[in-house]
Task: inverse folding
């Protein structure tokens, strides 16, 4: 079969809803698009540990500390799991980590914002994990087997993260006036970045045509964003919080919440490296790499020694 024929067959397979598996033939761009998306996703999980990790030592109770520790550990697990999924496409983990540490790789815009108060931990679980779940339940229906299956497992944990975040917000919003003000302030700062994190509008999204044709994504950025908004606005109201958008209104005809204008200039500034914490986040990962190097070297030396012993004994 020539390439055009193979591509036609590949497209037919995708259109019939079958999954593509690691060792199967795939168009080079399918491989590239997936590698890009999965590696960005893996980096997001790893960098995403930093804003919340900042509050582990300052959690207001032992229960909150244990829950937050478990959540941050889960994100590390998701990162490792996703690096493995990307490796099935032929890239190795070291290359991906090098791309992250040198600043060449993207990770989600949302993790370039600071966590200024305990309420931000609630806002991240509720809004950031909430947006991630809506996106990832869609990605779980995607065409690449190893990635879509990873999404099913990850979403189960994200939904625990989402509930713990909302629980923090709900308690604060129904606590003292100071606590309610803290929760509202966190919502004010995290609302728009969470809306933006679901990617550029459909009109601006350069990859969507290709990624949707191949069912890497099965819904567009705006469709997923609308689902997140429709699900989250009533939750804010139930907690007694106000969405920071004077133009927010419910459209009785469509049954959807309509929001005001999204600040895309801010989004592009952040993804180009000029958000409030981009430099800090990269520096933290670079330091972790440097400080952990001796452990990796010791582990590699020990493994080499064990291998040599096994060869001698054989
Ligand atoms: N940040 O053409 P499109 C989480 C880039 S996980 C930075 O629309 P696409 C869990 C995009 O890469 C959160 N860059 O792209 C957690 C592209 O640039 P490129 C991460 C962004 O891929 C919670 C360009 O803009 N989730 O939160 C962003 O079709 C709490 C044009 O965009 C995933 O990665 C952004 N927000 O659609 C962890 C899910 N949005 O590469 C810790 C997988 C877009 O051409 C704590 N990814 N860009 O140079 C996706 O679903 C998709 O990649 C989208 C973007 C929907 C993000």
Result:
């Amino acid at each position: 079969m020539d390439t055009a024929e193979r591509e036609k067959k590949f497209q037919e397979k995708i259109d019939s809803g079958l999954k593509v598996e690691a060792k199967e033939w795939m168009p080079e761009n399918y491989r590239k698009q997936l590698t890009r998306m999965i590696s960005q996703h893996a980096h997001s999980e790893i960098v995403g540990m930093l804003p919340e990790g900042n509050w582990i030592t300052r959690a207001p109770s032992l229960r909150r500390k244990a829950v937050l520790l478990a959540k941050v550990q889960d994100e590390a697990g998701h990162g490792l799991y996703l690096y493995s999924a990307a490796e099935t496409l032929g890239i190795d983990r070291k290359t991906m980590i090098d791309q992250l540490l040198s600043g060449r790789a993207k990770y989600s815009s949302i993790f370039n914002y600071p966590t200024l108060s305990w309420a931000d931990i609630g806002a991240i679980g509720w809004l950031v994990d909430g947006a991630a779940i809506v996106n990832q339940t869609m990605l779980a229906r995607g065409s690449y087997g190893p990635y879509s299956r990873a999404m099913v497992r990850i979403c189960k944990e994200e939904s625990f993260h989402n509930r713990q975040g909302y629980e923090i917000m709900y308690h604060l919003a129904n606590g003292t006036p100071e606590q309610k003000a803290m929760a509202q302030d966190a919502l004010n700062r995290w609302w728009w970045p969470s809306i933006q994190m679901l990617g550029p509008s459909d009109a601006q999204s350069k990859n969507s045509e290709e990624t949707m044709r191949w069912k890497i994504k099965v819904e567009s950025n705006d469709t997923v964003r609308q689902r997140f908004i429709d699900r989250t606005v009533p939750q804010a109201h139930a907690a007694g919080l106000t969405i920071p958008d004077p133009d927010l209104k419910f459209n009785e005809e469509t049954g959807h919440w309509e929001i005001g204008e999204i600040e895309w200039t801010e989004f592009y500034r952040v993804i180009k490296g000029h958000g409030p914490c981009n430099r800090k986040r990269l520096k933290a990962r670079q330091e972790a790499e440097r400080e952990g190097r001796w452990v990796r070297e010791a582990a590699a030396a020990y493994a080499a020694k064990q291998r040599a012993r096994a060869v001698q004994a054989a």
